[in-house]
Design a protein that fits this description.
Blueprint lengths: L1 E8 L1 E2 L2 E2 L2 E2 L9 E2 L2 E3 L6 H13 L2 E19 L2 E18 L6 H24 L4 H10 L4 H10 L1
Parallel strand pairs: 1-8
Antiparallel strand pairs: 1-6, 2-3, 4-5, 7-8
Helix pairs in contact: 3-4
Length: about 160
């Protein structure tokens, strides 16, 4: 598979900010915050969106830092898959808000995400829409296995 992502290099107190990946070929590994460029987004729009979602900041100023490409292999669903990952890296020069650096803030963010999904699920049930659409959306948003499994139970 091919993956195109945008990532932010944030330096705070002379330390590089890293996140722990959930799911995918980098599951459990430390990485720069960032992620997949969505349909119609520019790399800069992805940077701003992903850093808000993952570390809670509003990016104000940034500059292109690097771009790199790597190929890898990983076991996915008991099969060997090959991947090609292209990353665009930006150095974040200025931002608003504090980094989400404690578990309480991350839990609050996850609770908000779950509440949003529950509202959407109830809307879909009332409007007789197909919950498979929501599962596809969860996959696109990389919501993780727990959320996806919960949605599959509802279908």
């Amino acid at each position: 598979f091919k993956h195109l992502g945008t990532y932010g290099l944030i330096i705070k107190d002379e330390k590089i900010v890293l996140i722990k990946k959930v799911g995918g070929p980098y599951n459990g590994k430390l990485d720069l915050p960032g992620g997949t460029i969505e349909w119609g987004e520019t790399p800069e729009q992805t940077l701003i969106r992903e850093l808000k979602e993952e570390v809670g900041i509003d990016v104000i100023k940034y500059e292109l830092f690097d771009a790199n490409s790597t190929v890898f292999e990983w076991i996915h669903k008991e099969e060997l898959e090959k991947g090609h990952h292209l990353g665009i890296f930006y150095k974040v020069l200025n931002y608003n808000n504090e980094l989400l650096d404690d578990i309480k803030k991350m839990k609050e963010m996850m609770i908000h995400l779950v509440q949003s999904f529950l509202i959407l699920i109830n809307y879909l049930k009332r409007s007789n829409r197909n919950l498979n659409q929501l599962i596809r959306y969860a996959d696109q948003m990389k919501c993780g296995d727990i959320m996806r499994n919960y949605l599959e139970v509802l279908v």
